[in-house]
């Protein structure tokens, strides 16, 4: 199945302390929400489920599309999903074919705002976090 390079599924997973689930991309030395390209013909929810499982090993309890945005400059349709997971699950990113993350943790975005893969002004997950 080929990838549709202009559709991106982005997760928004918040713990009970208000921190967001983020992975550390070793190559870029930056934190980001688990996310990825939606395959051609793939439903965005299915794409988000697949990406989250690959990148974190987590199963989704609930998922809700909470924001869609067209990034004209990058030619990307961004789908933000508010997700809940069972807090007892353990992270496992060993099955990620892209091997993006070297670590996964719940982070206070204020603590990593200078280490983000997508800057705050372009980051729809952080904009959502700030406004909710």
* First-last Cα distance: 36 Å
CATH architecture assignment: Alpha-Beta Complex
CATH class equals: Alpha Beta
Name the CATH superfamily assignment: Nucleoside Triphosphate Pyrophosphohydrolase
**What's the helical proportion of residues?**
10-25%
Describe the largest sheet: 4 strands, mixed
Could you say which structural class the secondary elements and strand pairing correspond to?
alpha+beta
- What is the alpha-carbon Rg in Å? 14 Å
Strand order in the largest sheet: 4-1-6-5
Number of E strands: 7
- Please report the number of helical segments: 3
Write down the overall geometry.
globular
Strand proportion, as a percent range, falls in: 35-45%
Tell me the series of helices and strands, N- to C-terminal. Answer: EEEEHEEEHH
Mean pLDDT: 93
Unreliable spans are: none
CATH fold label: Nucleoside Triphosphate Pyrophosphohydrolase
Indicate how many domains the architecture comprises. Answer: 1
Describe this structure as you would to a colleague.
The protein has a single domain (3-131), classed as Nucleoside Triphosphate Pyrophosphohydrolase. The termini are far apart. The longest helix has 13 residues, at 44-56. It has helices at 44-56, 109-112, 124-131; strands spanning 3-12, 20-25, 30-32, 35-39, 60-71, 76-85, 101-107. The protein has 132 residues and is α+β, with helices and mostly antiparallel strands. Strand 5 and strand 6 (76-85) form a beta hairpin.
């Amino acid at each position: 199945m080929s990838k549709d390079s202009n559709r991106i599924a982005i997760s928004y997973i918040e713990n009970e302390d208000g921190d967001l689930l983020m992975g550390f991309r070793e190559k870029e030395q930056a934190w980001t929400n688990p996310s990825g390209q939606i395959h051609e013909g793939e439903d965005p929810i299915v794409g988000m489920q697949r990406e989250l499982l690959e990148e974190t090993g987590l199963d989704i309890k609930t998922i809700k599309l909470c924001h869609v945005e067209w990034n004209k400059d990058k030619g990307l349709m961004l789908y933000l999903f508010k997700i809940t997971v069972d807090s007892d699950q353990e992270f496992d990113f060993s099955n990620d074919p892209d091997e993006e993350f070297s670590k996964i943790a719940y982070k206070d975005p204020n603590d990593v705002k200078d280490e983000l893969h997508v800057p705050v002004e372009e980051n729809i997950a952080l904009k959502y976090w700030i406004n909710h």
